[in-house]
Amino acid sequence: MTRRPLLLRRRPPHAAGIGLRAAHVDEVMATRPPVGFLEVHAENYMSNGPALAKLLRLRRDYPVSLHAVGLSPGSAAPLSAEHLKRLRALIDDVEPCFVSEHLSWSTIGGRYLNDLLPLPYTDESLGIVSRNILKAQDALGRQLLIENPSSYLRYRHSTVPEPEFLAELVHRTHCGILCDVNNVFVSSRNLGTDPVAYVRALPIDAIGEIHVAGHHTTNADGVELLIDDHGSPVSCDVWSLYIEALRLFGGIPTLVERDANLPPLNQLVAEAHAADAFACWVKASDRRVVRQEAPYALAG
Ligand SMILES: [Fe+2]
Protein backbone atom coordinates (compact mmCIF):
# COMPACT_ATOMS: atom_id res chain seq x y z
CA MET A 1 0.00 0.00 0.00
CA THR A 2 1.45 3.38 -1.01
CA ARG A 3 1.76 5.74 1.96
CA ARG A 4 4.11 8.39 0.64
CA PRO A 5 3.65 11.26 -1.81
CA LEU A 6 4.50 10.29 -5.36
CA LEU A 7 6.91 12.26 -7.48
CA LEU A 8 5.63 14.72 -10.06
CA ARG A 9 8.07 14.76 -12.93
CA ARG A 10 7.15 18.23 -14.17
CA ARG A 11 6.85 21.47 -12.29
CA PRO A 12 3.28 22.76 -12.21
CA PRO A 13 2.42 25.66 -14.53
CA HIS A 14 1.87 29.09 -13.02
CA ALA A 15 -0.47 30.59 -15.62
CA ALA A 16 -4.04 29.49 -16.28
CA GLY A 17 -4.70 26.87 -18.92
CA ILE A 18 -7.53 25.92 -21.24
CA GLY A 19 -9.26 22.66 -21.97
CA LEU A 20 -8.09 21.58 -25.44
CA ARG A 21 -11.00 20.33 -27.51
CA ALA A 22 -10.92 18.85 -31.02
CA ALA A 23 -12.45 21.95 -32.65
CA HIS A 24 -9.56 24.10 -31.45
CA VAL A 25 -6.61 21.76 -31.96
CA ASP A 26 -5.54 22.98 -35.42
CA GLU A 27 -5.85 26.65 -34.41
CA VAL A 28 -3.84 26.03 -31.24
CA MET A 29 -1.17 24.30 -33.32
CA ALA A 30 -1.07 27.19 -35.80
CA THR A 31 -1.18 30.10 -33.35
CA ARG A 32 0.27 28.75 -30.07
CA PRO A 33 -1.88 31.02 -27.85
CA PRO A 34 -0.26 32.28 -24.63
CA VAL A 35 -1.78 30.01 -21.98
CA GLY A 36 -0.10 28.20 -19.12
CA PHE A 37 -1.10 24.66 -20.00
CA LEU A 38 -3.51 22.50 -21.96
CA GLU A 39 -5.82 19.93 -20.42
CA VAL A 40 -7.31 17.03 -22.39
CA HIS A 41 -9.60 14.15 -21.61
CA ALA A 42 -7.22 11.21 -21.32
CA GLU A 43 -9.60 8.68 -22.86
CA ASN A 44 -9.70 10.65 -26.15
CA TYR A 45 -5.99 9.98 -26.68
CA MET A 46 -5.66 6.33 -25.73
CA SER A 47 -6.00 5.03 -29.29
CA ASN A 48 -2.53 6.32 -30.16
CA GLY A 49 -3.83 7.83 -33.39
CA PRO A 50 -3.44 11.17 -35.18
CA ALA A 51 -4.93 13.03 -32.21
CA LEU A 52 -2.13 11.80 -29.97
CA ALA A 53 0.48 12.73 -32.57
CA LYS A 54 -0.82 16.33 -32.56
CA LEU A 55 -0.94 16.39 -28.77
CA LEU A 56 2.68 15.25 -28.57
CA ARG A 57 3.67 18.07 -30.93
CA LEU A 58 1.87 20.59 -28.73
CA ARG A 59 3.53 18.99 -25.74
CA ARG A 60 6.83 20.50 -26.90
CA ASP A 61 5.45 23.97 -26.18
CA TYR A 62 2.92 23.45 -23.39
CA PRO A 63 2.60 21.48 -20.17
CA VAL A 64 -0.29 19.06 -20.67
CA SER A 65 -2.69 17.87 -17.99
CA LEU A 66 -4.54 14.56 -18.39
CA HIS A 67 -8.10 14.63 -17.07
CA ALA A 68 -9.46 11.08 -16.91
CA VAL A 69 -13.14 10.14 -16.81
CA GLY A 70 -13.01 6.35 -17.03
CA LEU A 71 -11.23 5.01 -13.94
CA SER A 72 -14.40 5.02 -11.85
CA PRO A 73 -12.70 5.14 -8.43
CA GLY A 74 -16.10 5.02 -6.72
CA SER A 75 -17.02 1.60 -8.10
CA ALA A 76 -17.09 -1.27 -5.63
CA ALA A 77 -15.56 -3.58 -8.25
CA PRO A 78 -11.78 -3.49 -8.75
CA LEU A 79 -10.43 -0.97 -11.26
CA SER A 80 -9.95 -2.15 -14.82
CA ALA A 81 -6.36 -3.34 -15.20
CA GLU A 82 -6.61 -2.73 -18.94
CA HIS A 83 -7.76 0.87 -18.48
CA LEU A 84 -4.95 1.51 -16.01
CA LYS A 85 -2.44 0.03 -18.44
CA ARG A 86 -3.64 2.29 -21.26
CA LEU A 87 -3.60 5.36 -19.02
CA ARG A 88 -0.10 4.50 -17.84
CA ALA A 89 1.09 4.25 -21.46
CA LEU A 90 -0.42 7.66 -22.23
CA ILE A 91 1.21 9.15 -19.14
CA ASP A 92 4.58 7.74 -20.20
CA ASP A 93 4.14 9.35 -23.66
CA VAL A 94 2.83 12.74 -22.57
CA GLU A 95 4.61 13.23 -19.21
CA PRO A 96 1.71 15.36 -17.99
CA CYS A 97 1.92 18.04 -15.30
CA PHE A 98 -1.24 16.62 -13.68
CA VAL A 99 -3.34 13.48 -13.87
CA SER A 100 -6.82 13.88 -12.46
CA GLU A 101 -10.01 11.88 -11.97
CA HIS A 102 -13.41 12.43 -10.43
CA LEU A 103 -14.93 11.52 -7.10
CA SER A 104 -17.62 9.45 -8.76
CA TRP A 105 -18.38 6.08 -10.31
CA SER A 106 -19.17 5.25 -13.94
CA THR A 107 -18.70 1.53 -14.49
CA ILE A 108 -20.67 -1.50 -13.37
CA GLY A 109 -20.28 -5.11 -14.41
CA GLY A 110 -17.56 -4.17 -16.88
CA ARG A 111 -19.82 -1.69 -18.68
CA TYR A 112 -19.07 2.03 -18.97
CA LEU A 113 -21.93 4.42 -18.25
CA ASN A 114 -22.03 7.77 -19.99
CA ASP A 115 -21.99 9.82 -16.83
CA LEU A 116 -20.08 10.55 -13.65
CA LEU A 117 -22.43 9.25 -10.97
CA PRO A 118 -22.56 10.39 -7.33
CA LEU A 119 -21.43 8.41 -4.32
CA PRO A 120 -22.92 8.14 -0.86
CA TYR A 121 -20.32 9.47 1.56
CA THR A 122 -19.95 6.78 4.20
CA ASP A 123 -17.12 4.91 5.94
CA GLU A 124 -17.71 2.02 3.54
CA SER A 125 -17.47 4.12 0.38
CA LEU A 126 -14.43 5.92 1.79
CA GLY A 127 -12.71 2.55 2.14
CA ILE A 128 -13.64 1.60 -1.44
CA VAL A 129 -12.48 4.87 -3.01
CA SER A 130 -9.27 4.86 -0.94
CA ARG A 131 -8.48 1.31 -2.05
CA ASN A 132 -9.07 2.20 -5.69
CA ILE A 133 -7.03 5.39 -5.61
CA LEU A 134 -4.11 3.65 -3.91
CA LYS A 135 -4.26 0.95 -6.56
CA ALA A 136 -4.42 3.53 -9.37
CA GLN A 137 -1.53 5.61 -8.01
CA ASP A 138 0.60 2.49 -7.66
CA ALA A 139 -0.22 1.37 -11.22
CA LEU A 140 0.31 4.85 -12.69
CA GLY A 141 3.43 5.60 -10.65
CA ARG A 142 2.26 9.05 -9.64
CA GLN A 143 -0.19 11.09 -7.64
CA LEU A 144 -3.80 11.56 -8.79
CA LEU A 145 -5.75 14.75 -8.26
CA ILE A 146 -9.36 13.93 -7.36
CA GLU A 147 -12.05 16.38 -8.45
CA ASN A 148 -15.09 17.25 -6.37
CA PRO A 149 -18.30 16.53 -8.31
CA SER A 150 -21.24 18.77 -9.09
CA SER A 151 -24.23 17.42 -7.16
CA TYR A 152 -27.96 17.37 -7.79
CA LEU A 153 -28.96 15.15 -4.89
CA ARG A 154 -27.76 14.09 -1.46
CA TYR A 155 -27.99 10.46 -0.36
CA ARG A 156 -30.09 10.09 2.76
CA HIS A 157 -27.56 7.72 4.29
CA SER A 158 -24.45 9.83 3.60
CA THR A 159 -22.77 10.44 6.95
CA VAL A 160 -19.65 12.37 5.96
CA PRO A 161 -19.71 15.90 4.47
CA GLU A 162 -18.05 15.95 1.06
CA PRO A 163 -15.04 18.16 1.94
CA GLU A 164 -14.32 15.99 4.99
CA PHE A 165 -14.62 12.90 2.78
CA LEU A 166 -12.03 14.40 0.42
CA ALA A 167 -9.76 15.37 3.33
CA GLU A 168 -9.81 11.81 4.68
CA LEU A 169 -9.14 10.51 1.17
CA VAL A 170 -6.04 12.71 1.01
CA HIS A 171 -4.97 11.45 4.45
CA ARG A 172 -5.35 7.79 3.48
CA THR A 173 -3.93 7.89 -0.05
CA HIS A 174 -1.80 11.05 -0.42
CA CYS A 175 -3.82 11.94 -3.48
CA GLY A 176 -4.25 15.62 -4.26
CA ILE A 177 -7.45 17.56 -4.88
CA LEU A 178 -8.65 19.23 -8.03
CA CYS A 179 -11.03 21.85 -6.67
CA ASP A 180 -13.65 22.72 -9.28
CA VAL A 181 -15.10 25.95 -7.91
CA ASN A 182 -17.97 25.84 -10.40
CA ASN A 183 -18.87 22.40 -9.06
CA VAL A 184 -18.68 23.73 -5.50
CA PHE A 185 -20.99 26.59 -6.44
CA VAL A 186 -23.46 24.40 -8.37
CA SER A 187 -23.63 21.80 -5.58
CA SER A 188 -24.00 24.42 -2.88
CA ARG A 189 -26.88 26.13 -4.64
CA ASN A 190 -28.59 22.82 -5.44
CA LEU A 191 -28.19 21.39 -1.94
CA GLY A 192 -28.58 24.60 0.05
CA THR A 193 -25.09 24.68 1.55
CA ASP A 194 -22.42 27.38 1.91
CA PRO A 195 -19.80 27.33 -0.90
CA VAL A 196 -17.25 29.34 1.07
CA ALA A 197 -17.56 27.00 4.05
CA TYR A 198 -16.99 24.13 1.62
CA VAL A 199 -13.68 25.44 0.27
CA ARG A 200 -12.59 26.36 3.81
CA ALA A 201 -13.13 22.74 4.89
CA LEU A 202 -10.82 21.34 2.19
CA PRO A 203 -7.23 20.36 3.10
CA ILE A 204 -5.48 23.42 1.71
CA ASP A 205 -2.05 21.85 1.16
CA ALA A 206 -3.56 19.11 -1.01
CA ILE A 207 -5.07 21.46 -3.61
CA GLY A 208 -3.16 20.88 -6.83
CA GLU A 209 -5.40 22.42 -9.47
CA ILE A 210 -8.52 24.55 -9.76
CA HIS A 211 -11.21 24.32 -12.44
CA VAL A 212 -13.52 27.17 -13.36
CA ALA A 213 -16.41 26.64 -15.77
CA GLY A 214 -19.88 27.76 -16.70
CA HIS A 215 -23.28 26.43 -15.70
CA HIS A 216 -26.90 27.20 -16.47
CA THR A 217 -30.04 27.45 -14.40
CA THR A 218 -33.14 25.40 -15.09
CA ASN A 219 -36.43 24.78 -13.39
CA ALA A 220 -37.31 21.28 -12.21
CA ASP A 221 -40.94 21.03 -11.01
CA GLY A 222 -40.83 24.58 -9.71
CA VAL A 223 -37.42 24.18 -8.09
CA GLU A 224 -34.42 26.11 -9.40
CA LEU A 225 -31.62 23.76 -10.35
CA LEU A 226 -28.12 24.67 -11.51
CA ILE A 227 -26.69 22.41 -14.21
CA ASP A 228 -22.93 22.06 -14.60
CA ASP A 229 -22.75 22.05 -18.41
CA HIS A 230 -19.41 23.70 -19.22
CA GLY A 231 -21.39 25.49 -21.88
CA SER A 232 -21.19 29.16 -21.03
CA PRO A 233 -18.72 31.76 -19.73
CA VAL A 234 -17.72 31.57 -16.07
CA SER A 235 -20.35 33.39 -14.02
CA CYS A 236 -19.62 36.34 -11.71
CA ASP A 237 -20.63 34.18 -8.72
CA VAL A 238 -18.07 31.53 -9.67
CA TRP A 239 -15.34 34.13 -10.23
CA SER A 240 -16.12 35.49 -6.74
CA LEU A 241 -15.76 32.01 -5.26
CA TYR A 242 -12.55 31.56 -7.27
CA ILE A 243 -11.11 34.69 -5.64
CA GLU A 244 -12.09 33.34 -2.23
CA ALA A 245 -10.40 30.02 -3.08
CA LEU A 246 -7.21 31.80 -4.16
CA ARG A 247 -7.17 33.71 -0.87
CA LEU A 248 -7.38 30.42 0.98
CA PHE A 249 -5.20 28.20 -1.20
CA GLY A 250 -2.62 30.61 -2.62
CA GLY A 251 -1.58 30.55 -6.26
CA ILE A 252 -2.88 27.32 -7.78
CA PRO A 253 -2.77 26.31 -11.47
CA THR A 254 -6.21 27.02 -12.88
CA LEU A 255 -8.04 25.65 -15.89
CA VAL A 256 -10.95 27.15 -17.80
CA GLU A 257 -13.15 24.18 -18.75
CA ARG A 258 -15.47 24.39 -21.72
CA ASP A 259 -17.09 21.38 -23.38
CA ALA A 260 -20.32 22.69 -24.93
CA ASN A 261 -21.18 25.75 -27.02
CA LEU A 262 -17.47 26.13 -27.69
CA PRO A 263 -16.61 29.79 -28.23
CA PRO A 264 -13.87 31.02 -30.57
CA LEU A 265 -10.44 30.12 -29.20
CA ASN A 266 -9.59 33.74 -28.40
CA GLN A 267 -12.57 33.96 -26.03
CA LEU A 268 -11.41 30.89 -24.17
CA VAL A 269 -7.90 32.31 -23.95
CA ALA A 270 -9.34 35.59 -22.67
CA GLU A 271 -11.07 33.70 -19.84
CA ALA A 272 -7.76 32.06 -18.93
CA HIS A 273 -6.18 35.51 -18.85
CA ALA A 274 -9.02 36.72 -16.63
CA ALA A 275 -8.14 33.92 -14.19
CA ASP A 276 -4.50 35.06 -14.29
CA ALA A 277 -5.58 38.65 -13.63
CA PHE A 278 -7.66 37.59 -10.61
CA ALA A 279 -4.71 35.57 -9.29
CA CYS A 280 -2.35 38.55 -9.69
CA TRP A 281 -4.84 40.82 -7.96
CA VAL A 282 -5.28 38.41 -5.04
CA LYS A 283 -1.54 37.96 -4.71
CA ALA A 284 -0.94 41.73 -4.74
CA SER A 285 -3.75 42.51 -2.32
CA ASP A 286 -3.33 39.61 0.09
CA ARG A 287 -1.13 40.15 3.11
CA ARG A 288 -0.48 36.48 3.66
CA VAL A 289 2.44 34.81 1.88
CA VAL A 290 1.11 33.22 -1.28
CA ARG A 291 2.56 29.80 -1.87
CA GLN A 292 4.96 29.70 -4.82
CA GLU A 293 5.04 25.97 -5.34
CA ALA A 294 2.55 23.26 -4.58
CA PRO A 295 3.97 20.77 -2.03
CA TYR A 296 3.17 17.80 -4.25
CA ALA A 297 5.96 18.97 -6.57
CA LEU A 298 8.47 17.70 -4.03
CA ALA A 299 10.11 14.35 -4.46
CA GLY A 300 8.67 11.62 -2.27
FE1 LIG B 1 -14.04 20.28 -13.55
Task: Please summarize what this structure is.
The chain has a single domain (17-297), classed as TIM Barrel. 39% of the residues lie in helices and 18% in strands. It has helices spanning 22-31, 50-58, 81-94, 123-140, 162-173, 181-191, 195-201, 236-249, 265-285; strands at 17-19, 38-41, 64-67, 98-102, 105-108, 111-117, 145-147, 176-180, 207-212, 216-220, 223-227, 254-256.
Question: What would you say this structure looks like, in words?
Answer:
- Mean pLDDT is 90; it is low at 1-10 and 289-300.
- The protein is globular and about 50 Å long.
- The chain has a single domain (17-297), classed as Alpha-Beta Barrel (TIM Barrel).
- It is α/β, with parallel strands linked by helices and 300 residues long.
- It has helices at residues 22-31, 50-58, 81-94, 123-140, 162-173, 181-191, 195-201, 236-249, 265-285, and strands at 17-19, 38-41, 64-67, 98-102, 105-108, 111-117, 145-147, 176-180, 207-212, 216-220, 223-227, 254-256.
- The protein contains 9 helices and 12 strands.
- 39% of the residues lie in helices and 18% in strands.
- The structure holds fe (ii) ion (FE2).
- The site of fe (ii) ion has 5 residues, from loops.
Shape: globular
Percent helix? 25-40%
The counted number of beta strands is 12
> What is the CATH class designation?
Alpha Beta
User: How would a textbook summarize the main sheet?
Assistant: 8 strands, parallel, barrel
Q: What is the spatial order of strands in the main beta sheet?
A: 1-2-3-4-7-8-9-12
> How are helices and strands ordered from N to C?
EHEHEHEEEHEHEHHEEEHEH
Number of helices: 9
Alpha-beta content class:
alpha/beta
Q: What name does the CATH topology carry?
A: TIM Barrel
Query: How many angstroms does the end-to-end distance come to?
Result: 15 Å
What are the distinct ligands in this entry? Answer: fe (ii) ion
Q: Compute the gyration radius: what is it?
A: 18 Å
Low-pLDDT stretches? 1-10, 289-300
Average per-residue pLDDT, rounded, comes to: 90
